[in-house]
Amino acid sequence: MREKCFSYIILFFIISVVSDYGQTSIPNTIKALRIYSKIKLDGILIEDAWSRAQKISNFTQRELNEGEPATERTEVAIVYTEKTLYIGVWCYDSEPNKLVAKEMKRDFNFDTEDNFEVIIDTYHDRRNGYLFVINPNGARADVLVTDEGRRMNKDWNGVWDVAVKVNKQGWFAEIEIPFSTLKFPQRNVQIWGINFERNIRRKKEQVLWQGWSRDYELERVSQAGTLVGLEGISSGHLLEIKPYFTGGFEKKPRIKTTYVNKVGADVNYLITSNLKLNLTFNTDFAQVESDRARINLTRFSLYFPEKRDFFLEGRGSFDFGLGRSVQVFYSRRIGIKEHEEIPIIGGVRLIGKEGGTNIGVLSLQTATKEDEPTTNYSVIRISRDVLSQSKVGFIITAKNSRDVSNYVYGIDATYVSSRLFGNKNIAIGGAVAQSQTKGDSNYRNLAYRFFLSYPNDRVEYDLAIVCVQRDFNPEIGFLRRKNYKVIYTELQFNPRPSFLPWIRKMEFKPIDINYYLTDDTNELESVSMEWRPLGFGTKSGEWFEYNIQRFFDRLDEPFEIHEGIEIPKGKYWFNRHEIQFHTFSGRKIYFRSNISWGDYYSGTRKEANLGIRFNVNKHLNISADTQLNKLEFPEGEFTTKEVGARIEYAFNTKLYSVIFGQWNNEDNEILINFRLHWIPKIGSDFYLAINQRIFTGNSRLKFEDTTVLLKLVWRFSY
What phi, psi does 110 have (nearest 5°)? Predict the structure, then answer.
């Protein structure tokens, strides 16, 4: 019996090793070549350094045919000077006239076109990395990746550049990344994690250098290869000063025109190569696009994403493990109230990593505005890397003003492994937080979350238990609802049937349940369930899914869903159906739809979300969307309409404009936002922003609020 058990152990070990090895392609190390003169950034890789540097070309398909060699040759080489890293890319293509390259703007949507991606794990901690993406037009995008892609800050903008050339052999690029853009340990010899990905969009082909399993993505830096050869480099104790000037005017009906003249600055200082200190004075967000107005047909709060650059940089440093619906720190609580700006006098922020400790510290002071007193907002978030991919940490937040004194304390821990049964992913974790508010009851003031996640290609499973007690009050956080506990579980199967040659992947979801109880009474409060009997994606890039949904909601008070229409209190069970469909996003014209119908509380609801995007050429992209709801109740009926449209024009990769318009029949107004963004040099920015509000009630158009702002931000580094 012992021999049999031992044989099983040996067999399991062999399978695990073979499975792991199957995600490694030799060579899995690339050596950077030291050079002593700059590379001319022109996309023409003719310098002698490129011929002397080691080239890797062993790319393997993740899609469409996992494990097969790439159908088009890709080569990569790396050279560096004392201050700069250069990456040379050769993307050979047998049909370069069929490249899909639709955009030129900064932070383009790289999921829809040909691109090349590189992720660099400078600490070699196999957890976090810098992701840089380019396309054949020379467009750039960059992302801060934390926790192997579980958190991604797509709004981070690093200082780096690229030049691309397209010819009859394919497309070729030179990427220039100053070491001052990266944080890395202070030592003479550097060993970094690195991985590369190329997407050939017309073929729906995705190839990676290492870790090409469908259970992983490029952001899984634990599967990356190794970059060696870096010696004697330093990011230096960089001092970066970014002063800005904003000027313009705001005109409202029957009110004297208000003129804006504002000066401020951000100062960044690298205390070490790992820790960045940021000081901000008279912070301004004139360049930020307006929020999308939405009609709320639920009894819960709406979530609006952060768009302000100051808060987007280093956002991952403040993430805490209670999940999106329970956020201890939600940066939009600072400097915004009911979509109106509250001036920020200034503040300080410290972000970075020392050893295995991740550090995020923030303190900002807002000014007095009308009835809103001057207020201090502070956050301390510390986490420690443990084991190979796991971490533990704590957070403290504080809001203090004449009227409010609020503190939140929390701890969290997550165990992560990508070695389960050889190469499967699993995450198990939990978090607990407590609030203290002066003058309020602090008896039931806890929130907690415990979860298990098995996020793999063929089988996905998630389980979570979340509780927010009645008196939990994170004044600088976000709560969708209070006084509840929920059990959530979801199971999904994703087979890839070879007997259906036109199918890439199918989806079947037998379980998706959110079961809410009122925390202090344990009475059933609400339930949402979804079954997906059919979902599939085609090899041509289309997607279809059909869902059957069942809901329960207990209304303890009447719910005014629309002006003059109240849903009586009571217990409501109702069923709905949903169909989602979209075409391949790599085409010149892309269409998406989401249609649902069925019961809704005491009545019925029909909903349609439709969107279309038209790529005219690499300069011009046009998109539009609409959401329609028709609701009928014994108490009355109404229809909601929301429409949005966007026209984007990129003159080149450093000069971009967009006009965004939106309208809904609840506010009866058109909001138009125009932005022009020019990058005169990498790291400096010029913005022109125009906002126009047009009243559409009473069957007429009336121009109301008009705002015109200019903003110049210039970067000085020492």
Answer: -80, 0
At 242, list the tokens. 């970014």
- The answer to which of 122-126, 223-227, 630-634 has the lowest mean pLDDT is 122-126
Indicate the pairing of strand 255-270 with strand 275-283: antiparallel
Work out whether the CA dihedral 470, 471, 472, 474 comes out positive or negative.
positive
Verdict on whether the full-model pTM lies above 0.85: no
The answer as to whether 73 is a domain residue is yes
Residues 336 and 472 in one domain: yes
Domain hosting residue 391, numbered range: 301-480
CB 42 within 8 A of CB 232: no
Task: From 212, 231, 250, give the residue that closes a domain.
Answer: 231
Neighbours of 291 (CB within 10 A): 16
Q: Is pLDDT above 80 for 699? A: no
At residue 570, the pLDDT reads 94
Same domain, residue pair 197 and 326: no
Percent of the chain at pLDDT > 90 equals 65
Helix extents (H) in 313-357: none
Tokens of 621: 């992209």
The residue type found at 300 is F
Task: Assess if residue 130 is contained within a domain.
Answer: yes
CB 76 within 8 A of CB 43: no
What separation in angstroms does the CA of 282 have from each of 242, 336, 474, 522?
12, 15, 26, 48
Structure-model confidence comparison of residues 5 and 551, the more confident one? 551
CATH code: domain of residue 221 = 2.60.40.1190
Domain boundary residue among 459, 480, 501? 480
Start-to-end C-alpha separation, the chain:
70
Sign of CA dihedral 688, 693, 694, 696: positive
Residue 574 and residue 595 in contact, taking contact as beta carbons nearer than 8 Å: no
Domain membership of residue 559 (yes or no) is no
Any idea of the CA torsion for 107, 108, 110, 115, to the nearest 10 degrees? -90
Whether residue 311 is found in the same domain as residue 412: yes
Q: What is the CA radius of gyration of the chain?
A: 27
Please report the pLDDT score of residue 440 as a whole number.
82
Do residues 221 and 315 share a domain? no
Indicate the burial class of 694 (C-beta count within 10 angstroms; 0-12, 13-18, 19 or more): middle
Number of domains comprising the chain: 2
Joined together, the tokens standing for residue 289 give: 């696009």
In a domain, 645, yes or no: no
- Residue 539 burial (C-beta neighbours within 10 Å; 0-12, 13-18, 19+): middle
User: What's the helix, strand, coil split of the chain in %, to 5?
Assistant: 10, 55, 35
